Amino acid sequence: MYHIRAYDSDNVPTTQLVIGIISAQENFIQRKTLRETWLTLASGVEVKYYFVIGKGFCPIPLEYRSSYLSCERWKPCLEGVFGETILDTTRLKITDGFSKPFKGFSFILSHGIIISRIGISSRVLNNCKQPVRVILENAISGQRVISSTFIDDSSYSKEQEEIVWKNVAPIHLHIGFEGTIYASSDCISTLANINLKTELYDKTKIVLFLQNIDDNNTTEYYEGSVSMVAFSYTISDYSALKMKLSEEESESNSWLAYTEEVWLKVLEEKHDFNDIVLVDVVDVYRNLPKKIIEFYKWISTNVNFEYALKTDDDVFLDLPGVVRELSKDADWKWWSCFRIGWPVRRAGKWRETVLNRTVYPPFPSGAGYIVHSSVVDFLVDHYKNLFMDAQGEDVSMGIWLDDLNLKRSEHSDECNWACSNTCEVGNCNIMELTASEIQLAWENYKECGFKICKC
């Protein structure tokens, strides 16, 4: 079955290149800067460009979200909790039956804490019969934060369901800290069928559980996850947290007023420039895969084009160089700087929590990639079956197109796509720039004979 576009007509000129520039609603200065710099080189029917903006604005202020990358409300509970209250990351299971025990878990903090002790299940020690080390690490840097060895001294009853604790020197961890805590011993891999009665739980929702850690892989945390290890903590700057929570309603009202003001400005900008496509997504980072698909759906219906380029509003682009390359005879379907053998990350902004892979398939640099219209047609035709839970649109493109064995191009006589923000002669683009840096790049570009980084 072939995809039929509304604009497949001899009466409508074919646009050689349509550009989708991913932008956030509030990025007015970035869009203005691009219009005044490299976008001035787009002309006629050869090139069309659109800023791609989500219609939806997250109604939750950033400081009251469980993550700044998404739009989920943080719902802490401080009932019966005070500044000196010692809180644990486990509780007795509330359901019967066996649950697979995990050797550890990863987490992120929605407020600062002070860790006072770490622990391990007494049943793990009873069954191991050898020393077990409990290690807490910074999940992003891999740096060890706390480490302590536990030894079975036969004083723990096999029927006990408690955690064996060890006090540690107080460790202050800041809001946003991502960590992993796990048990390390040769015996751990033999305990897959041990029946533990403690499950991960944090009543305050200050410790947000991310993933269960196993010997061979990680799985997304689920309610009732059973862990061999735990830690205890007190809340850092308790009074500041109480104050923050008491101000949530007024802060939310201020945020909503701000979003309404931004939205009106976006509509005015759209009317004035006619270069904005509003797509049906809430404009947060985790929705980027859906955002690019919605743009592809829009151009598939509204533009008769040969190639589609995706870039961001913090990128400077050598548009003439790109167009010259597209004017040549080529049999590739995909042109970018591709990342090959890139490991799936489990921490930080690019953290994957659902994707069950250790390595991504080849995927393009999100700062610039071009696909043939037939690729857009495929994605539009199959969008309902696409995996939408990866952390970014660039890795999602790699996942979506992995089975097609598309011919890729990375090198060109005209310019090459950048995989980093290093300025190199012959690049098609420079990425991760501020508005003022884009303006400076534009001045240099003109002085250097319309070549990036030439002088």
TrEMBL record:
The protein's enzyme class: transferase
Record field: catalytic activity: 3-O-(N-acetyl-beta-D-glucosaminyl-(1->4)-alpha-D-mannosyl)-L-threonyl-[protein] + UDP-N-acetyl-alpha-D-galactosamine = 3-O-[beta-D-GalNAc-(1->3)-beta-D-GlcNAc-(1->4)-alpha-D-Man]-L-Thr-[protein] + UDP + H(+)
GO biological processes: protein O-linked glycosylation
Biological pathway: Protein modification; protein glycosylation
Superkingdom of source: Eukaryota
Known EC number: 2.4.1.-
One GO cellular component term: endoplasmic reticulum
InterPro entries: Glyco_trans_31
Topology in membrane: Single-pass type II membrane protein
Matches recorded under Pfam families: Galactosyl_T
Location relative to the cell: Endoplasmic reticulum; Golgi apparatus membrane
GO molecular function ontology, one term from the record: hexosyltransferase activity
Predominant subcellular localization, coarse grouping: endoplasmic reticulum
Keywords: Endoplasmic reticulum, Glycoprotein, Glycosyltransferase, Golgi apparatus, Membrane, Signal-anchor, Transferase, Transmembrane, Transmembrane helix
Family as reported in the entry's similarity comment: Belongs to the glycosyltransferase 31 family.
The protein, known as: Hexosyltransferase
Organism: Laodelphax striatellus
